[in-house]
Each structure stands twice: as C-alpha cells, then as structure tokens.
C-alpha cells in the first residue's frame, strides 16, 4: 500500500491491485505497470500510464507503445468497434501516445507476432482486432452455421393443425405474414425474426412457444437486461431470464458456469432484444447452446447496435447464412401510437408529422431555438407539465434521452440541471468523480460488476448516503446494493442518458 500510494494510486484501486497480484503487486508494477490495464477491471491505460511515468518509464519505451496499441483499439471498442482499419489505427495510436509513427509500427508488429492483436481483412480493407474480439466473432459465425445445419430437436409438426389449435386458445386471428413466420420457425433449426415496433414479433413468439410447449419441447427464454426479460415473461407467459442469470455468472471470475462443457438444458433457446447483445456476450451464450438445440433470435434491426462492441444481429441478418423473417406490417392497435408510426416514417426516410396533436397522443414535438432554451423547456416538461398532464413521477417514470454526453443539451449538462430541479441535495450527500450523489437520486451503473450483480445500463435509486462509514446504498429492481465511496466511479446520475445507454429502460420516453 505504501508503494502504491507513493506512486499515485488511491486506496480503492490499490485494493483491487493487491487482490489481483497479492505479494507480487510491487514486482508486477515495477516491471510492467501496463499490465494493470489488461488485468484489472476499472483500471485503464491512462491510469497505468500515470503510474508508469511516476516509475520513470519513458514515453518511447516499447512496453508503453505496445500497450498503447491495445489502448487505441479499446478506445475504438468503446465506440462499438471490434477492430480498426490499419490505416486508421496507426495515426490514432501515434496521436494518443505522442510517439513517432515508426515506433507504433514496430510495436504493432510485435503485438501481432505474439497474437495479442490479430491482423485480418474485411473485404479489401486491412484491419487490426483485439484477439479476444476477433476470436469471438469467428466463433459466433462458425457456431451459428453448425447449429443451422443440425437436425430439428422436435418431431415433424402439422403446421395447419398447430396454427388452428393455437388460434382457438389465444383467440386472435393471425395475419398472413405472421402465419408464414410461424411455419418457418417450426421447420428451422435457427431463425431470425426482425422488424420495427408494432409489427407483431412478440405475437409470433408467443404462438411458437405455445405450440412447442404442447409438444413437450424444453424451452428457455432470455434477454440482455432485467427489464427486457421481465417484458418478455409478461408478454409470452413463459419465464425469461437475463442472459447473465441464464448462464449462471460466477462473481469471482466474471465468467459463466454454463458453456460448451456445461451446456444449457433446452431444445429451443429464444433470445429477445438481440440488437442489444454485444459480441462477447453472444459468444458466451452461443457456447452454452447444445448442438442439438434450435435457436430463435428476435430483435429490431433498426435499433442502435449494442453498447458493447459489435453489431451481432445486423451482421447475422446481412450474412444471409441464417433464415430471416422480416416483418413490416404495422397492426391496427400499434398504428394508433404516434411513436410507432413516427418511427416507421423515419425508417422509410420520411419527415415525421410534427404538427401539434388535436387529441390525446403519445408523441409531442416541442421546438427550442437554442440549447439554453431547450434545457429550460426540458426541465419544465419533466418537473411540471408531464407529471401534471399524465400523473407520472418525474424521477421514476420519466427518462430524458439525448444523442450525446457532451454539449449544452448533452446527458452531463442535463443531469446537473435535472438533479438540481428534481432532487436538490441536502446535508446527506457525497461528491465523487465529478458527481454529487444524495438519497432519492436516480443513478445508472456504467460497468459490469459481477460481485454486486449489477450491469452496464442498470438503473437504480439512492436509498442512503452514510458519511460515517463512507458508503452509499442504492436499490436496483428492489435489491439493495452497497458502494464504498471509492467505487462510485461505477455510477452516474441517470435523470438524462444517452440513447445508447438507455435503450434497455422501460419508462415513458421524452
């Protein structure tokens, strides 16, 4: 601890370092402090670089430049990329590291020769990938093709009789496109069902599940977030779990107990909201699917890609290797929602109808001439007008979404303004990592924490700030989770959130 503190490492990070390396911590840091960024969750290249500078490591040292290659790729990964074109990576690393391009080229050759990064081509473009992400993408592709070519796990089903039977029980006549989708699903080992809001994806899945359950087919349902899993359970009548819970996450390692050596016990796995599943999570899930099982992937291709790296759903669809059902017909009940009709207009390249509505509606357009006026109007809408009109709680029922973190109407600025307006802090507050946290605040977890079982994008509410014990307690879906003040870099206020971060939330949108 004395060594770590003397080299600029705070207590919380020092504890993580000691837990990882034990008595070897001083030796590891002295030899190559850049290992910290690779080995320890929550410590990035910049932190390791600051420690290295204190230890006297030169900016041009090869261990630094080599680590910088992974840093540049990790920066790209945070933007959703699995790799970068070599022509983009080289100048990016040169700029980030402030070293000559020849050194970057030499470091890249060493990283490639040792398999830490992988050079490959995407079409005609030479690219560089972090090895783990490259392996994950290849595994997903190979495994999906293997599953698709397997034998159906259930006996032949008379689809005409099955459809008549399920319609009699559920009491809703299906559209022709929905009937065709169900027929294909009952004959396919793997299938993707995609389409925008209101096109009946859930209706199709519910009927497929009812038919197969009647044939004693073992079913498992999952979704990437707790809210999505809950919605799926309510909509289908079959229990759905989060992917992490289904795979039985191991808090000690962050890995999963389910995998190719301990596969899931099912004949059909259904993955909902698949657009939110990133490459690494999909790899873990696909590993756990037994070779005899069928796979049904459901999602909206027009949604933003996952928060993590990759765009699995879009890539699977565009590959043409897996059968795909594309639903386009918006059904009457859904068409009554202006949110849904507006979304489809935008997808077709049409300008939405922004005129003031003459009747009750779920879509309003409020114009603002500049960011300052926009902020004032957003605060007024959230604090006064929407709660008064619809009876919503301004903190728990309303979520402000914006495209970016930065700027006058970015998530950071809006969070400061909304927090001050909706939940001004009293004496029981803590200020850490540039944010104030107080009881009643709405917060978001911004990194996976397997020990606490809270994950990137989860929304919670601060219950207590204990200044004496240096601890904050927040509730996530009714479960209390404790944070030492040094761990609050994992939380941010969530009155406003970027669209990417907030995709999984299930609250009215503004």
The tally of beta strands, per DSSP, is 18
Note the gap between the termini: 47 Å
Low-confidence stretches: 504-510
Largest sheet: 6 strands, parallel
Shape: globular
**Helical content (DSSP H or I, runs of 4+):** 40-55%
Read across the widest sheet, the strand sequence of neighbours is 6-5-7-8-4-9
**Which structural class should the secondary elements be placed in?**
alpha/beta
Topology:
Elements: H1 2-6, H2 11-21, H3 25-31, H4 35-39, H5 45-54, H6 62-78, E1 83-85, H7 86-97, H8 101-113, E2 117-122, E3 125-130, H9 131-148, H10 159-170, H11 176-187, E4 190-195, H12 201-214, E5 219-223, H13 226-236, E6 240-242, H14 243-246, E7 268-271, H15 279-288, E8 294-299, H16 312-319, E9 324-327, H17 332-335, H18 338-347, H19 371-390, E10 400-402, H20 411-422, E11 430-432, E12 435-437, E13 442-445, E14 459-466, E15 471-476, E16 479-484, E17 491-493, E18 496-498, H21 499-502
Parallel strand pairs: 4-8, 4-9, 5-6, 5-7, 7-8, 10-18
Antiparallel strand pairs: 1-3, 2-3, 11-12, 13-14, 13-17, 14-15, 15-16
């Amino acid at each position: 601890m004395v060594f770590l503190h003397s080299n600029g490492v705070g207590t919380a990070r020092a504890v993580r370092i000691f837990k990882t390396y034990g008595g070897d911590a001083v030796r590891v840091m002295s030899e190559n402090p850049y290992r910290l960024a690779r080995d320890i969750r929550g410590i990035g290249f910049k932190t390791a670089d600051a420690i290295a500078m204190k230890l006297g490591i030169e900016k041009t040292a090869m261990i630094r430049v080599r680590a910088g290659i992974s840093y540049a790729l990790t920066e790209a990964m945070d933007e959703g990329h699995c790799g970068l074109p070599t022509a983009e990576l080289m100048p990016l690393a040169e700029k980030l590291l402030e070293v000559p391009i020849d050194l970057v080229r030499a470091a890249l050759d060493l990283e490639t020769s040792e398999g830490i990064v992988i050079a490959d081509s995407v079409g005609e473009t030479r690219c560089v990938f972090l090895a783990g992400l490259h392996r994950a993408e290849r595994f997903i592709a190979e495994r999906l093709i293997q599953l698709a070519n397997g034998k159906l796990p259930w006996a032949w089903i008379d689809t005409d009789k099955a459809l008549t039977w399920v319609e009699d029980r559920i009491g809703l006549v299906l559209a022709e496109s929905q009937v065709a989708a169900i027929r294909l699903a009952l004959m396919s080992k793997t299938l993707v069902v995609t389409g925008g809001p209101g096109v009946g994806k859930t209706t199709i899945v519910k009927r497929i599940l009812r038919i197969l359950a009647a044939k004693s087919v073992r079913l498992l349902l999952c979704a990437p977030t707790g809210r999505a899993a809950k919605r799926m359970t309510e909509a289908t009548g079959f229990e759905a779990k989060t992917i992490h819970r289904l795979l039985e996450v191991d808090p000690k390692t962050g890995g999963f107990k389910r995998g190719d050596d301990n596969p899931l016990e099912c004949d059909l796995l259904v993955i909902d909201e698949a657009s939110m599943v990133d490459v690494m999570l999909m790899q873990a899930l696909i590993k756990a699917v037994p070779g005899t099982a069928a796979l049904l992937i459901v999602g909206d291709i027009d949604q933003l890609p996952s928060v993590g790296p990759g765009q699995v759903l879009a890539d699977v669809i565009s590959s043409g290797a897996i059968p795909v059902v594309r639903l386009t017909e918006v059904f009457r009940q859904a068409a009554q929602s202006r949110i849904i009709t507006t979304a489809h207009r935008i997808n077709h390249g049409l300008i939405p109808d922004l005129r003031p509505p003459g009747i009750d509606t779920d879509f309003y357009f409020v114009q603002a001439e500049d960011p300052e006026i926009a902020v004032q109007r957003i605060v007024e809408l959230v604090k006064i007008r929407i709660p008064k009109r619809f009876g919503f709680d301004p903190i728990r029922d309303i979520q402000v979404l914006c495209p970016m973190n930065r700027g006058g109407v970015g998530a950071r600025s809006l969070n400061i303004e909304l927090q001050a307006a909706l939940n001004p802090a009293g004496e029981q507050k803590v200020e850490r990592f540039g944010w104030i946290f107080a009881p009643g605040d709405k917060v978001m977890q911004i990194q996976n924490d397997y020990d606490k079982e809270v994950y990137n994008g989860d929304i919670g509410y601060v219950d207590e700030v204990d200044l004496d014990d240096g601890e904050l307690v927040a509730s996530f879906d009714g479960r209390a989770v404790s944070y030492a003040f040094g761990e609050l870099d994992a939380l941010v206020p969530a009155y406003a959130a970027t669209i990417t971060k907030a995709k999984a939330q299930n609250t009215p949108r503004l």
